[in-house]
Amino acid sequence: MTIFKTGTTALVTAALLGGAATGILTAAPALAQETVQLEIWSRQDVSGPLRAGNVVKAADMLNAALEEEGSDVRVEVVVRESPAQGFDDDALALLRAFGIGEGPDMFIAAHEWICAFQQDGFALKLDDYIEKYPEHFGTIFPSLWDSTRCPDGIYGIPQDAEARMFFYNKKLLREAGFDEDFITAMPERTLAGDLTMDEVIDIAKQVVDNTDAEYGILHRPNVGPDFSMVFGAYGNDFVDPETGNLLINREDLTAAFGWFERAVNEGVIPANNTSMDWDAIRADFYANENSAFWKYGIWDLGSYAFPTFGLPDDEEGFFADWGWIAVPAAEKGGQPSTLTHPIIYGVAADTEHPDLVVRLLGYASDAELNTDHAVTTTHIGIRPEQLEDPRYQEAWPLARATQLLEIAKYLPNEPQFADLNRILYTAIQGVESGRLTAEDAAEFVIDEAEGNLDNVIIE
């Protein structure tokens, strides 16, 4: 056991539940007659340490409020850290902990898992609490609440947001023959529904044909949320709004696979993209300028583009030679989009102190604390008032990308979507390698879903 002390806060770590660590962080005044320990489950996530850290800080804020109210109760926060490598594995570990009665009072999870906790009776419905505490939750972006919603209500509190887009290299577009007016107009044309998904392929092909760039479009090389951007552009929401069950539309699915098929056939997406290395992909786009487009997320600028590959980190310098567009519509006049993937706070259904937990998470969602997280991890904030913070304005990728929340889409809050997403990725690999046509890929996904998943609706 190791104890770290900083001021009035102590951190105790110990092995728990197969390698998880527990930290007791205490800021309760000595005169309190009752100290309530509230436990939060969090991944050991270097990309977001303040997701749990802000809850620890919020304990001081809640205790100050309780003291002002004349209450004898004070809270201290216990952080239980999971060593899970990703949010899917972490959610499964947490579900097992709840299943054996070892669940925490609150937890951090990727939003698409919240209804798994709701269905198993492990998550507290929050609609009444959100209405009760408008001072904490009233200004959170309305669209973000959709990411925490199950068929019968809200079960989570948005902790952050993000935006995923097509980054592009303006220097390569100029070299390929596109004039400055065309290049400058691309973002607004996209938002207006004028620039389409197929036009992205056309632009990328012109770059490949007329420059030394080897690639037109690069995407992540492993399974992940990003591919939902393309599927969403072609109408695939993957969830039935009435039942909350997974829904697959054969026509829309085929159309989305058709985009990947055309991109590979045109020599734009490399056939081996799914077997490439992350570092090599980033280097090809940012450093080697070997691709016109890179389909990924806003955090990549602060995490890699600026510190690792030396792209200009000032707004004017970046947009002189680089840019991004939202995910275009499939057809002219259609709706562009972005994919956002909020991480959320959940509250255990059986916590003994639901009101205290919700208030604690309300303070953790304070604009200043959330901006601390946003600017240090290049994630988008949860409140419009954060746009007024000089730190947020200085972190210009966040300020610029926040506008995309108005057209944001989400992964389905359906427990089986992670399994469906792996099936979709396998089909993409088949299409890009030439083993499957778009039609074959759609049939493969439908067959696998019907054979391995429950209650899937096929249209």
From TrEMBL:
Pfam families noted in UniProt: SBP_bac_1 (PF01547)
Secretion signal span: 1-32
Coiled coil: none
UniProt keywords, alphabetically: Periplasm, Signal, Transport
Entry annotated with the keyword S-adenosyl-L-methionine: no
Main location: periplasm
Intracellular or extracellular location(s): Periplasm
Gene3D superfamilies the record matches: Periplasmic binding protein-like II
PANTHER family tied to this protein: ARABINOSE-BINDING PROTEIN-RELATED, SN-GLYCEROL-3-PHOSPHATE-BINDING PERIPLASMIC PROTEIN UGPB
Family listed: Belongs to the bacterial solute-binding protein 1 family.
Stated role: Part of the ABC transporter complex UgpBAEC involved in sn-glycerol-3-phosphate (G3P) import. Binds G3P.
Subunit structure: The complex is composed of two ATP-binding proteins (UgpC), two transmembrane proteins (UgpA and UgpE) and a solute-binding protein (UgpB).
Name under which the protein is recorded: sn-glycerol-3-phosphate-binding periplasmic protein UgpB
Organism: Chelativorans salis
Organism lineage string: Bacteria, Pseudomonadati, Pseudomonadota, Alphaproteobacteria, Hyphomicrobiales
